[in-house]
Amino acid sequence: MSRRIAWFNCFSGISGDMTLGSLVDAGADTDELVKLLGQIPIGGWSLEFEPVLRNGLAATQAIVSARDDGVVRTFMHVIGIVEEARLPERVRARAVAAFSVLAEVEGRLHRRPPAQVHFHEVGGHDAIVDIVGSAIALELLGIDSVAASPVVTGTGVVRTAHGLLPNPAPAVVELLAGIPTVGRDVNVELTTPTGAAILRAWGTEFGPMPAMTIEASGFGAGVRELEGTPNCTQVVIGMAADSEGSAGPVGQPLVVLESNLDDATGETLAHAVDRLLEAGALDAWIHPVVMKRGRPGHVVSVLCDPALASQLSALLTAETGTLGVRASGVQRWAAERQPGVVEVEGLPVRVKVSPGRVKAEYSDAARVARITGLTLIEVTARAEAGFRSVLPETEGDDDLSPPPLGA
User: Quick one: which of 222, 310, 372, 399 could link to 231 by a disulfide (CB 3.0–4.6 Å)?
Assistant: First the structure.
């Protein structure tokens, strides 16, 4: 299977609105984007896209207008907002991952557990719209992986809810750890915490433009004009080229984390898997093994994006008490899928649709089963049959094209 890449050229830094603007400039459908953003359960905001020039370069500026509701949201509050929006799965996962890395960094900086972190600037309407909107735009463009150039930062100081801080801000420095960066002698916040979190959570490779067949590109404009260079973030979108000498197309690069345990209870293992999935793991599983001295044990495995490997390794260690975690690189060829929604007894149930198959979302089906008294098997069967019944008639049985994204 082929893989579509979005490579962000951060020659003037990156922010949430510049990311969103660049993806729209590259062709993301604004009507569908705003429609899906409308599912976020917060009001008092609007989003516009304005064509502008930055040092003579055509770009798109994403402008979020919002009233200040005075609410300082915690990490868990923001995650609740994202979850309640019932967005497509990959959009939800990307948004949660971005806010999770922000919470982890802010927690370290302020010596608080991530769940208790209070988001100030990044918990406002504009930051939520920027992050969730960018995740939606990636989905609309069919992006499978994100890459980026070295990230440019400025100098001087920045004004925050905690007062004046050095530029780049401490959160930006933490988020960019391990990512190539370049400082410019410009007294402007070129890279914001939101932009840095997007790269940390979604980026899988950093450096020059990866080998790809270019399909589209766009520029997202920052608010200020900079002397000598356009204040923009560029995105280049294309299909990944096959690896040299490879017998087939390149898969999505992922990491598998594993740890052997012979002293963890079933409750501990189950809780650890739940926490890993909540923190952004793509999958997590347990299988029994026989360890040294004939002891029965378990191997906990976690599939994740490389950008989350460090965070999830630390979480796996904290939740299980393991003395070590190993990692290996893998590639994934995921079947194409689209989300859909049907109703069972008047209640919504999400479904995943891939060629030849419709599968009901377990959590939705279980919730409807509890409310209605139906069995889980009955809810699942009715949801999947209900989705098939609204599909247009085709000559074959394998055409399960879903309704438009967000339907």
Answer: 222
Q: How far apart are CA 79 and CA 67, in angstroms?
A: 21
> pTM for this structure?
0.62
The DSSP symbol for 156 reads: S
Residue 192 CB: number of other CB atoms within 10 A? Answer: 27
* pLDDT on residue 119: 61
DSSP string, 92-103: HHHHHHHHHHHH
Cα distance between residue 404 and residue 51, in whole Å = 27
Whether the per-residue pLDDT at 396 is higher than 50: the answer is no
* Unique residue bearing structure tokens 């002397």: 227
Residue 397, pLDDT score: 44
**Which numeric CATH code is attached to 252-332?**
3.30.70.1380
Say how far apart CA 330 and CA 332 lie, in whole Å: 7
pLDDT at residue 333 above 80? Answer: no
| 224 touches 1 (CB < 8 A) | no
Provide the 3-class DSSP secondary structure of residue 358.
Answer: strand
Q: For residues 83 and 91, what is the distance between their CA atoms, to the nearest angstrom?
A: 10
The percent of residues in the chain predicted with pLDDT above 90, rounded, is 48
Looking up tokens 């009715």 gives: 382
Residues 234 and 232: their CA atoms lie apart, in Å, by 6
What does the DSSP 8-state code read for residue 296? E
Burial state string for 19-39 with b = 16 or more CB within 10 A and e = fewer than 16: bbbbbbbbebbbebbbebbee
Distance of CA 72 to the CA centre of its chain: 22
Q: Would you kindly state where each structural domain of the chain is located, as residue ranges?
A: 4-240, 252-332, 338-389
Which residue, among 204, 235, 217, has the nearest Cα to 134 in the 3D structure? 235
Position with higher pLDDT, 112 vs 322: 322
